[in-house]
Write a structure and sequence with these properties.
single chain; mainly alpha; Rossmann fold; Arc Repressor Mutant, subunit A; 3 domains; three-stranded parallel sheet; 10% strand
Length: 474
């Protein structure tokens, strides 16, 4: 059975690169009918953040890509004796050795190598000294002098010359293992079959293949996914989107939209499609269609995908109400009433605003025109191709005729027909009439159509706002 894993380090909020890798591991496992597991790699105690573990779980739950062992993940810091035992086994097999090189010697070695233009790495100084393991010492793996060749599921055949692989530390002087030993031991115990991770780990893969062989473990299959790049092609920064994944939640992105977008950061569906549900992705994801080249983070594309998922969400207004900000939700509940058309104000507002936003944190801005009377600028109130005189004629005529409409007929079609009648009967242009009414009601140059705003405001509030506009012009 296929088994994949997500193995984050709890050193802060997971970012989009971490979670994109988790998503690929999840999708591959589900597509193959396998298992997706969680492991917490907390051996870097200096950077450990105790809140991070819960954040990782919360993110996976929010995105609905939950590992089978979410509530009981493997935690490396609780397994130190196991790693030490395996390191000692490698010592006994003479596949590893004790090193007592000081930090000063190693720093000097790296500086000398760098100055001479050589790759930096350990020079094997302690390799044949047969030192005893004691406090202050580390254990290094003994890399054999043989070429390493393997098939990467994304990058095809990859090979490494042994001269480029140094004798990596596998057990540190504080008793904690390095990533190299710990993850190989853990993957074996968890029966992981496929390791899906960032391409930054590609140069370390020969060491992991060697360790698997030394320990007698089954070799896993590797897939190194491309990095996510900034729009300029460089390293992704916080300004470009390299922020904690939960910030996308706080800015009003839907989890299904983020899943959809992250899948397209490297995976190619081989069609022009861009809208996918999680179920779609589980059925269609294939590592063969993951690109080798870096994926460009495109904020506009993310916004467009989120907007598409928001439109789908209009079919589930109960869920939509739980996702908009609390203040907006309370206001919608407070003003909700049945309109003459039989629709509720709440539903009409949702249908009016949601198609005009990219993400839910923009909802309150659009709702504001219904919450408070707008501040009007008389220079904007007059359409650029109109006159003050024509604007007053339009507003006064609309007010008079609107007063004659019974409350039960105060609906979109009637209000729009009334504005059209003013245009025709007073020999005015659409701009003479529609523009000042829209601005009088919203205080915005870009807003929903005036008949939609007026329907939601109600007859009395509409006429009060137009009266204020007339006063501003007089």
């Amino acid at each position: 059975m296929v088994t994949t894993r997500f193995a984050p380090s709890p050193t802060g909020d997971p970012h989009i690169g971490n979670i994109r890798t988790a998503l690929f591991a999840y999708l591959f496992a589900k597509h193959e009918g396998g298992e997706f597991l969680l492991r917490i790699e907390d051996t870097d105690q200096k950077r450990y953040d105790e809140k991070s573990l819960q954040t990782i779980k919360d993110v996976l739950t929010w995105l609905k890509i939950e590992p089978e062992n979410l509530e009981n993940p493997m935690i490396q810091s609780k397994r130190l004796d196991i790693y030490k035992k395996e390191a000692m086994r490698l010592l006994e097999q003479r596949d590893a050795y004790v090193c007592n090189c000081s930090k000063e010697r190693l720093d000097e070695l790296r500086q000398t190598q760098a100055k001479s233009g050589k790759p930096t790495g350990y020079d094997g100084h302690c390799r044949d000294l047969n030192l005893d393991f004691k406090d202050g010492c580390v254990i290094r793996m003994k890399v054999p002098n043989e070429k390493i060749v393997f098939q990467d599921l994304i990058r095809d055949e990859v090979s490494f010359d042994p001269s480029t692989i140094d004798d990596q530390i596998i057990l540190k002087s504080d008793g904690f293992p390095t990533y190299h030993l710990a993850h190989v031991v853990d993957d074996n115990e968890m029966q992981v079959t496929h390791v899906i991770r960032s391409e930054e780990w590609l140069p370390s893969t020969p060491k992991h293949i060697i360790l698997n062989k030394m320990l007698g473990f089954r070799q896993v299959r590797y897939a190194h996914v491309p990095v996510i790049l900034s729009p300029s092609g460089g390293k992704l920064s916080k300004r470009d989107g390299a922020v904690g994944i939960l910030s996308f939640l706080h800015h009003g992105y839907l989890p299904e939209a983020l899943i959809n977008y992250m899948a397209l950061l490297g995976w190619n569906p081989k069609t022009n499609e861009e809208f996918f549900t999680l179920k779609d992705l589980e059925e269609r994801f294939d590592l063969k269609n993951v690109n080798k080249a870096g994926a460009i983070f495109d904020q506009k594309k993310l916004d467009n995908i989120n907007r598409a998922h928001l439109l789908v969400l209009l079919g589930d207004k109960d869920r939509l109400m739980t996702l908009i900000d609390e203040q907006s939700a309370e206001f919608l509940k407070k003003i909700d009433r049945e309109l003459p058309s039989g629709q509720s104000v709440k539903d009409v507002l949702l249908e009016l605003i949601v198609p005009r936003i990219d993400k839910l944190d923009e909802f309150s801005n659009h709702l504001e025109i219904f919450v408070k009377k707008p501040n009007l600028d008389e220079t904007i109130l007059v359409f650029r191709k109109s006159t003050k005189e024509n604007t007053l004629i339009a507003l006064n005529e609309f007010t008079q005729k609107a007063g004659e409409i019974p409350g039960e007929d105060w609906i979109f079609d009637q209000i729009k027909a009334l504005m059209e009648a003013v245009v025709e009967q007073k020999n005015l242009s659409n701009g003479d009439v529609f523009w000042p009414i829209r601005y009088a009601l919203s205080g915005m140059e870009k807003s929903p159509p005036p008949e939609e705003i007026a329907t939601i405001l109600g007859k009395q509030e509409t006429l009060e706002r137009i009266s204020r506009a007339v006063e501003a012009l007089q």
